[in-house]
Automatic annotation (TrEMBL):
InterPro entries: E2F, E2F_WHTH_DNA-bd_dom, WH-like_DNA-bd_sf, WH_DNA-bd_sf. SUPFAM superfamilies: Winged helix' DNA-binding domain. One of its GO terms (cellular component) is RNA polymerase II transcription regulator complex. It is found in: Nucleus. Residues 65-77, 571-582, 641-652 have a biased composition (Basic and acidic residues). It holds the Pfam family WHD_E2F_TDP. GO terms for biological process: negative regulation of DNA-templated transcription; positive regulation of macromolecule metabolic process; positive regulation of nucleobase-containing compound metabolic process; sprouting angiogenesis. Keywords: Activator, Cell cycle, DNA-binding, Nucleus, Repressor, Transcription, Transcription regulation. The lineage of its organism: Eukaryota, Metazoa, Chordata, Craniata, Vertebrata. This is Transcription factor E2F7. Residues 111-180, 248-333 form the E2F/DP family winged-helix DNA-binding domain.
Amino acid sequence: ENIYDRSRMAPKTPIKNEPIDLSKQKGCTPERSPITPVKIIDRPQPDPWTPTTNLKILVSAASPDMRDREKKKELFRPIENSEQSDTPDSLQYGIVDDSTVDEFEKQRPSRKQKSLGLLCQKFLARYPNYPLSTEKTTISLDEVASILGVERRRIYDIVNVLESLQLVSRVAKNQYSWHGRHNLSQTLKMLQEAGELQYGELMTSQHKEQDLEYKFGERKKETIPDSQDRPLLDFSEPDCTSASANSRKDKSLRIMSQKFVMLFLVSKTKIVTLDIAAKILIEETQDTVDHSKFKTKVRRLYDIANVLTSLGLIKKVHVTEERGRKPAFKWIGPVEFPEKTDELRGHSPTSDPLPETQRGACAQYQTSATGKQRFTRHASFNSAQPCEATGRKVSSEPNSPRQERQDENCSKMINLAAICRQKIEEDTGSAKNSNISLPFSLLPVPGDSDFCVNPLPQAVFPVVQADVPSFSLPNGISSQASHPSTPAASKTENGKPTLVPSQPFLCFPSSSLFMLCGGLQENNLSERLPTAGDLGSRSAEAQAAVPPTGCQKRSSHKCSSPSAPADDEEPAAKKQTLEHNDLPLSLVVPKKPSESPKAESSPGSGCSAAVHLETNSLDLPSPAAPEVANKESTKPLDCQEQEKQSQNKDPDEPPPGNEHISKENANQPFQPQYIYVQPTTGLSSFNFLFSANQAPGAISLAANQMPSLSVPCVMVPSAALASFPLVCSPSFTSPLSSVPDGSFSAAASTTFSMSSLASTTPVFISTTAVVTPKVSPAPSVDPQQPAPPTLHLSPVLTRSCSAVKLDSPVCMGHPVTLLKLQQPSSAPLTPKSIRPAHNEAFFKTPGSLGDPVAWKKNEGNQTRNASSVQRRLEISSTSPD
DNA sequence: CACTCCCGCCAATTA
DNA sequence: TAATTGGCGGGAGTG
């Protein structure tokens, strides 16, 4: 039809809205020019658009007659067509096909004609994708409704979704302002980040997570109990958000839309099935499982999907799973978001959008300054991540409640994500109802505080430095209590005091492995704002010490240096991967493959990432190769173990996540402080500790909330270890913490033994700083040599680190019960801090990004000294204690 | 029959 | 209180 119309359209179209527009004030962009002379004709019946039609419509609106929908429909159709023709831009994808029907049908408006998707297209056609910054177009709901000939209710459906992506914002009662897609990339990025946090976990192991959740969550739950336990109401949700208003309503469409988008962004495959999405969303809500609810959710998802489809962000596909073919949607929008500005920084509200031309090319990707204003707000939002919502609301302007809502929403979203993943898992697994997830989800709220942890990392740095000099292991150990550093850590947690302060251990989901690296920053989270307060001073220190924290670093790192290329590649790879999988849902399916997503995905990307990191920060490239090797080896192991984890699928890797990681890595200096591998199941499987020396703070971070952890040791699954070199630092054992010591030592010994068993891989336990390059993989290092003057890392370490990261996901603690090691201490500080910049610690989770999302992030930051690290890592090959 | 999802009642929120 | 928003689910259109 379109085509058909077009030919004629010219004449016809003219009208559309123009009159209206004019009257209205929309800022319509000039682009679309309006008008054409009119013509009429052709279809007498429907009466295509003509200028008059508008009038008619309006009139009809007024009159009851209007009601004839059919007529209207007919009328509208033409409109549609015309519009499309006019503004092809809005839709690229082939809507046309559908419409192809032609005029014949015009008459018969079948349901399709009335579809929300079509309506949305029409709606979008009215406004430029990239409006000039200067012009502000306002949208009057009434007008639009009348113009488009639909009830207002329908317009709300569209606008709500658009609002969730910030294409529009509500300014007043019946008024919305059109922003276009300038901010879209940022919005998506934010959503992606938020999604990773929450959903990322999904990817990883579920079970473990749960454990963690419990622990963490316990406290939180307490606060939140309502929601889960009782569905009380809507409240439940709100609770999460914490304060602010939670209008009950918020929940729906807008949030649902964001979550839905998050799922896509987090998903490797970029395909999300409706049922999964529905489940996830429901969970959030927490409702009981109702079947009816499910149906309702699905209905809404269709509504959202229609709008997103109109935006060209997704398309409908079918995935065939075990059970059969299921409807699903595939993300066809931008996947990567460029740097973005680092949000925070300085953007002032500059504002001008890029010229469209540029945009066209880059459009999505560009992060440039467009739309800062909002972003700022959002940024907070993003950064806030997990709980952000609670506390933060950056926006100064209270204006519209809606904004607040969004913030809240974000937080909610985050929470949701956590839930979702669980759910997903469950779903995949079979069971359905899980309420369990809740805790976690809930956490977020409280979690915020937890999240706040992030700051820690920063803090850490500084601390480290301070310590560095001294950096004796013991110090680290003492860390918990003692040094300032310690306190810092604790604080960071502050919100949570830690579950167990004393405890040395953390539990992690079995499946995953975690690596802790010294100096990690969490880059990603960088956004998170560290809490200003806590961090504040520290942060300052940190900054001083390490200039590069946060965003800046990253970006710079990435860009600069060799790493860059690598980065680029990675993404590409990722993309590819993504594309490949159409069918499977990334989220859901998992099953087999397993395991550590990291390994999987990463080999390529991961490696590169790792490398980058090294190179960048360390400048030690060599390790990479070895690392890779290690990784691979590890992977298998993981896989085995992972059986349980059904979820993580290799394939799935979160592309984005990886990317992020890589970035992070780059930033970071990397040395992993600890490596943790989780045994899949039981203890037996893994076990290793590494003593890492870390600054306590770092540890704590990692833990994420967990109690403070300074862990001297890490348990790693033997297998995993085998794959990579382990390092232990004996020093720790010593008494850092009084308690831990004993246990610790024991643990250590045990672990090692295990490793030995496993031992294909050499394990090293370093008592101190020995470096053994030996690590199987390691070799390459030499050349590059880490020689990290600054860092001190031994090559080995670096390698190991990198390897670790890549490979396995690290799991931090396991079930405590099992190991319960105590970690004595924290880690010693890292002397290295010398290099401020580099000192980031990164904490990567393997696989997807972090299942333990929070953890990672939190952790991210630690910094470690190379020395400390080295110690840990380095070791004599032999085990033993 | 299953999948979509339009339609509009009516409650929650706002003005 | 009236108007605006928007949750929700019946049930119809489509394949």
